[in-house]
Specification:
Muramoyl-pentapeptide Carboxypeptidase, domain 2; 6 helices; peptidase activity; single chain; Zn_M74/Hedgehog-like; three-stranded antiparallel β-sheet; alpha+beta; disordered N terminus
């Protein structure tokens, strides 16, 4: 993973190494079925969410962009359009294409970016099945806010991050999952192209899961996983 301050081509190479090392090419045949529900059924972080800020600064890739994003970076900057470090625009839900989907087999609905929804909803489904049951009201999605104490937008602001069973796995607490659960979580993150806050080097955030792949690779992986499952 890139070190802090790494930019441009070197950071992009770090992203490519991450893809090669961590993304599982063996995708199961079962498609992710996306059931869109009314936005009122989705849950965003509570108003005091700033006290549960995510994305440790030492753990982010600075300057990582897809080739398409890189070619537009100056233009977008001139227009004042903020983006996540991996190339996703941030902002209000409707503007960036956030929709709310039911996690199959649960009463939980999550507002996430539609074009990568198979990654987050598929992960949440398997988390519920293989790690622990999801609780309604404890799982959060899109929130148009910056990281606390920073001008950099959160992954939540791009609709590419979720928090699962947040009260059970509070920010800064380590070891809220068993060794077996951690092994399963890491395997699922590898499958869906996610990064887990439990693997942050400094302050752990075990509730938090984010799409970390460059935008083009994340969208391509989402299409592969979804196949013909959307409805």
């Amino acid at each position: 993973m890139a070190v802090r301050g790494q930019k441009g081509p070197s950071a992009l190479r770090s992203a490519e190494r991450f893809v090669a090392e961590y993304v599982d090419e063996r995708i199961e045949d079962e498609p992710v079925v996306l059931e869109e529900v009314d936005p009122s059924e989705g849950t965003s972080p509570p108003e005091d969410w700033d006290s549960h800020a995510h994305e440790d600064d030492e753990d982010v890739w600075e300057g990582v962009e897809t080739s398409a994003a890189a070619s537009k970076s100056s233009f977008e900057a001139a227009r004042g359009k903020a983006r996540s470090i991996n190339g996703f625009s941030v902002g209000p839900a409707k503007r960036i294409g956030v929709k709310t989907y039911r996690v199959p087999g649960t009463k939980v609905s999550l507002p996430v970016r539609a074009i990568i929804a198979p990654l987050l909803i598929g992960f949440a489904k398997e988390f519920h099945q293989k790690v622990e049951r999801l609780r309604k009201g404890w799982c959060w999605g899109h929130a148009n806010r910056n990281i606390r104490g920073s001008k950099r937008p959160s992954f939540h602001a791009a609709g590419i991050a979720i928090d699962l069973n947040a009260p059970k796995h509070p920010l800064g607490r380590k070891g809220t999952f068993s060794a077996a659960q951690r092994k399963t979580i890491n395997a699922l993150c590898k499958k869906y192209g996610l990064r887990w806050g439990g693997n942050y080097r400094r302050r752990k955030d075990e509730m938090h899961f984010e799409v970390i792949l460059p935008r083009a690779k994340a969208v391509a992986l989402a299409k592969r996983i979804q196949k013909r499952g959307a409805r």
